[in-house]
Amino acid sequence: MFRTVTHLACFFDVSVDYLMEDVPLPLLNYAKAVQKGDEPFVGRDWELVQLQQLYNLNLSSQSAACIQGMQGVGKTALIKRFLDQLQHTNKHSVYVPIEPNDAFTRRFCRAILCISNDLDDASVRLVIKALANTSLLYFYLLDWVGVTLDSAERYALSHLSPSRLGELEALAMTLLVQKALESSVSAIAIDNLHAANSKQLHFIEEFIEISKKQRLFLILGLTDIGLFTYPPDWLKHAHTISLGALNDSACESLASFYTKPQSLPPSQLELLRQLSIKRSNGHPAILKALIESTQGDKVFPEPLYKTTIRTLLELTHVQVSLLKFIACAGMAVKVEVIDYFLSIKSVTGIKPVHDLVCLGILCPKSNCYVFRHLLIWEIVLSLVIDSDRKEWKTFSQRQKKERYKHLPK
Ligand SMILES: Nc1ncnc2c1ncn2[C@@H]1O[C@H](COP(=O)(O)OP(=O)(O)OP(=O)(O)O)[C@@H](O)[C@H]1O
Ligand SMILES: [Mg+2]
């Protein structure tokens, strides 16, 4: 329906709201994206409203938002969409993702201080000199923005006591926050927080602490795995927005957007769309990959497949056995079934299953564990060989017998 309305609007060279009353927001977004030729953005109206409310709240009292969800669910898309909306209100924002092997502190400080990456070191030194009121602060900031210190500058910093270094860090952070506010920056987004190393995490933690007293809205994007499986204490004050599945109408419009009409006959295209929507379970990156593969019912999207296999390679023998056992038992498995399996393997404690949760493979629910996504379950299941499958079946049957043996016959 979204595609038809948008095509009609394009054909008659009018906007979609000229053709129909009360245009739903996902359709409006879809039509805008098609007409502009860029990536569409659908659904997430509730999340955008939440972000806007938190942002407004931040004008009177400090607030922060943590956007979390599985890989590819749309955290970055949501954050960027919100920041785009802010731009229309003449407010500035800064978006800095954590990237592998990249100097986050350098990019973050340069973004806030409006220092271009192309600027040569001598010019950067001039900018920093104008900001810092002491030599030590000047050296400290130079290091943050990625200018190589000379030996005297390095010596001066390396001989400071930890408490003096702590004070300098706080001063430099305060200066960053002040500069951000002076340049009318009202929101700062740090994306991919889960990928940060300990030094970067320390920096971000300190920045959050210092900016708490200021009117800077912080948005943190993260996949809830590893250290972030459960919110750490220093993020407890942030409001969590957990991204789940896109709703049906958003999936329909996204599927239409990614379908190339020439690729298959219309009846097969419709089948591909429906199968891909079903298997994607409302996950936009998976939906896109399935549609683009034109084999929505068979393939596993490559990024998801690779991530899952990479994760499996890191597991211990017991964890792999446990995971395959759970997969054979179903997409969701009761806690007592897992307990039974671990007792047979003479494993005490919940570490193996806790690790699977922290790796983003399983989700804990009230009385069971569920695979994080239907396709993660299917990938694991596809790796179980027939002989294993029989063994797991015997396990489950034995477990059922054990469970009911105390009942009168
Ligand atoms: N609301 C949405 N509407 C349309 N497309 C979306 C939406 N959300 C995500 N997508 C698409 O899905 C893909 C993955 O989105 P995105 O990169 O935002 O996910 P992510 O959660 O940030 O992933 P990662 O965990 O890898 O950082 C992108 O191609 C993006 O355009
Ligand atoms: Mg992202």
TrEMBL record:
Please state every residue range assigned to the domain named Orc1-like AAA ATPase. 40-219
State any GO CC term: cytoplasm
UniProt keywords, alphabetically: ATP-binding, Nucleotide-binding
Q: From which domain of life does this come? A: Bacteria
Q: Cite a single GO MF annotation.
A: adenylate cyclase activity
Gene3D superfamilies per record: P-loop containing nucleotide triphosphate hydrolases
Instruction: Enumerate the SUPFAM superfamilies for this protein.
Output: P-loop containing nucleoside triphosphate hydrolases
**What InterPro entries does this protein's entry cite?**
AAA_16 (IPR041664), P-loop_NTPase (IPR027417)
Against PANTHER family, the record matches this protein to:
GUANYLATE CYCLASE DOMAIN-CONTAINING PROTEIN, TESTICULAR SOLUBLE ADENYLYL CYCLASE
**Which protein is depicted?**
Orc1-like AAA ATPase domain-containing protein
